[in-house]
């Protein structure tokens, strides 16, 4: 995780784009550098004061040795009076030096107070900045949680969209099924209408046959009546037997013919009855099948309507996701703008820090000059014990202040360690979030690729469904071959010249222009050629 590049966080309007661990580390480094410089200054002052104390001790030892010399010699010496006068002048000079030292101490105290105030202000500002950074980190963490929630929602939406795309594919199959069912429904309706017509025709034929059979029965009855009448007449008339026999035979033949016709009619009637029964059963079965088909068609129609509604919801969700993507792109642009602004602000702050460092260096030089003056003035007060005591007290104060500074330095080191640990934790969290964002980005790109492939497949299926005619196919092939034959430079004339060096084909006009302009390089591969390398090419 530590080897991966640090990614910048996504921020909204009004926020600052900050690299995890850059600004806080710079602040901690500046504080450490200031503390180190102060410690070095304190050490130099300590060394300087110890050297001064050693020199003063040596001078005091010399004075003590001189004091051990006999007073009589000193009193007898001619320089006693001059020494007394010099002592008086020295006392006056000492008083002036004390006054000057007091003034210098006041100035030094004021300078130290001003410096401490500046340090306090700087520390307060740094604490405020640290608190602001902590607040920003908390806001970023909350935003990261929100982004993760949005990511989960987007993944759910993607899964839903995939499922709905599957439903769309199945819905296309349902459409074909519904169309087939509607065709079958129309076909069955036509069959029902044809069967009803056949039924009506058969009923008419059955009625006609019944009428014919009734007519034949009536004719038989009439024939029987006529036979009875004829027999009576024959009996009454007393006709000869051969004529009667012939008439009986004729009547019998007619009766047999009529009976045979009646049998044929009865057989046809029975056949028609059986056909009508079968047709009625077929009609009932077809009605049942039609009812089941109508129910299935209604169910498929309802399912198709539901699928259409789901497709509409999917289109709306896709539009919302496109809007979300546009918003994310706008947020990225805003983050980049904020980043540039923060870089400019950082440059300005660095310039201000350099200016402050220059001012601090100038003040340090002034302090050094003042210290040199104070040292030159303190050299004249070597023999005085009062100054020695003051120096001892000053050393004690310096040691106390140094101890305080050491404690403060240790506290700052502890704070630095805590800040470094927090920064490491924040960096780990940021790296994890960055890796997760990359993973989701790759997932999003993969889904986009899948969607594009599905769209290409749908377009290919649509093209395959649309069957082209042979003329259109031939025209497309002819257009392709014309494009191959055309010159790649002018795209108006056919290729009729070949370059022997690179074997590229062009029209003669383009090659002549190339030679006239003294380019003499192939436009495709930029190989040099001459007029001797040009060969004509004829299309058969």
Question: Could you provide a short overview of the structure?
Answer:
With 540 residues, the protein is mainly alpha-helical. Helix content is 84%, strand content 1%. It is elongated, with a radius of gyration of 61 Å.
Written account of the structure:
The protein is mostly helical and 540 residues long. The chain has 3 domains: 199 residues, no CATH class; 149 residues, Helix Hairpins (Orthogonal Bundle), CATH 1.10.287; 54 residues, Herpes Virus-1 (2-Layer Sandwich). Strands 2-1-3 form a 3-stranded antiparallel β-sheet. A hairpin with a 5-residue loop joins strand 1 and strand 2. Helix 1 packs antiparallel against helix 5 and helix 3 packs antiparallel against helix 4. It is elongated and about 220 Å long. The two termini are 68 Å apart. The N terminus is likely disordered. InterPro entries: E3_ubiquit_lig_Bre1 (IPR013956), Znf_C3HC4_RING-type (IPR018957), Znf_RING (IPR001841), Znf_RING/FYVE/PHD (IPR013083), Znf_RING_CS (IPR017907). Belongs to the BRE1 family. It is an enzyme of class 2 (transferase). It is found in: Nucleus. Pathway: Protein modification; protein ubiquitination.
Question: Can you write the helix and strand succession as a string?
Answer: HHHHHHEEHE
Number of helices: 7
Largest beta sheet: what is the strand line-up?
2-1-3
Share of helical residues:
over 70%
Q: What value does the Rg take, in angstroms?
A: 61 Å
Q: How many strands, what sense, and barrel or not for the largest sheet?
A: 3 strands, antiparallel
Q: Count the strands?
A: 3
Task: Categorize the overall geometry.
Answer: elongated
Low-confidence stretches: 1-21
**Span from first to last CA?**
68 Å
Counting structural domains, the number is: 3
Arithmetic mean of pLDDT: 72
Structural class based on helices, strands and sheet pairing: mainly alpha
């Amino acid at each position: 995780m530590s080897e991966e590049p640090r990614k910048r966080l996504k921020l909204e309007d009004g926020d600052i784009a900050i690299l995890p661990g850059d600004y806080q580390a710079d602040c901690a480094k500046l504080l450490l550098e200031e503390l180190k410089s102060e410690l070095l200054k304190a050490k130099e002052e300590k060394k300087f004061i110890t050297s001064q104390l050693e020199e003063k001790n040596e001078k005091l030892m010399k004075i003590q040795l001189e004091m051990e010399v006999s007073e009589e010699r000193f009193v007898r010496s001619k320089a006693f009076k001059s020494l007394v006068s010099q002592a008086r002048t020295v006392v006056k000079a000492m008083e002036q030096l004390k006054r000057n030292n007091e003034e210098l101490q006041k100035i030094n105290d004021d300078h130290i107070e001003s410096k401490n105030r500046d340090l306090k202000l700087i520390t307060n500002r740094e604490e405020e900045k640290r608190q602001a950074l902590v607040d920003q980190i908390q806001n970023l963490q909350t935003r990261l949680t929100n982004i993760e929630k949005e990511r989960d929602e987007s993944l759910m939406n993607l899964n839903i969209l995939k499922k709905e795309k599957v439903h769309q594919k199945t819905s296309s199959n349902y459409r074909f099924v519904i169309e087939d069912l509607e065709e079958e429904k129309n076909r069955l309706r036509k069959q029902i209408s044809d069967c009803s017509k056949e039924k009506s025709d058969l009923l008419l034929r059955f009625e006609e046959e019944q009428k014919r059979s009734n007519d034949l029965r009536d004719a038989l009855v009439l024939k029987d009546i006529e036979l009875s009448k004829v027999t009576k007449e024959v009996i009454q008339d007393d006709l000869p037997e051969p004529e009667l026999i012939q008439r009986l035979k004729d009547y019998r033949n007619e009766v047999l013919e009529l009976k045979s016709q009646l049998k044929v009619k009865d057989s046809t009637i029975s056949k028609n009855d059986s056909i009508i029964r079968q047709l009625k059963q077929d009609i009932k079965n077809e009605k049942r099948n039609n009812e089941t088909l109508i129910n299935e068609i209604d169910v498929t129609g309802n399912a198709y309507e539901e699928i259409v509604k789901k497709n509409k919801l999917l289109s709306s969700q896709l539009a919302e996701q496109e809007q979300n993507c546009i918003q994310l792109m706008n947020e990225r642009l805003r983050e980049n703008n904020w980043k540039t602004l923060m870089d400019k602000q950082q440059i300005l702050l660095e310039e201000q820090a350099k200016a402050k460092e220059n001012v601090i260096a100038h003040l340090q030089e002034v302090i050094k000059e003042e210290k040199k003056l104070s040292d030159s003035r303190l050299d004249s007060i070597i023999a005085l014990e009062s100054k020695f005591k003051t120096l001892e007290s000053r050393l004690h104060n310096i040691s106390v202040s140094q101890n305080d500074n050491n404690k403060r330095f240790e506290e700052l080191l502890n704070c630095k360690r805590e800040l470094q640990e927090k920064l490491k934790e924040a960096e780990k969290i940021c790296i994890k979030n960055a890796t997760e964002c990359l993973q989701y980005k790759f997932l999003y790109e993969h889904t986009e690729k899948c969607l594009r492939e599905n769209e290409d497949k749908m377009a290919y299926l649509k093209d395959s469904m649309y069957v082209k005619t042979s003329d259109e196919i031939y025209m497309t092939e002819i257009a392709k071959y014309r494009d191959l034959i055309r010159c790649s430079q002018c795209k108006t004339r056919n290729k009729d010249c070949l370059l022997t060096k690179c074997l590229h084909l062009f029209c003669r006009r383009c090659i002549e222009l190339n030679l006239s302009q003294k380019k003499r390089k192939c436009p495709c591969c930029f190989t040099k050629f001459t007029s001797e390398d040009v060969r004509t090419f004829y299309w058969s």
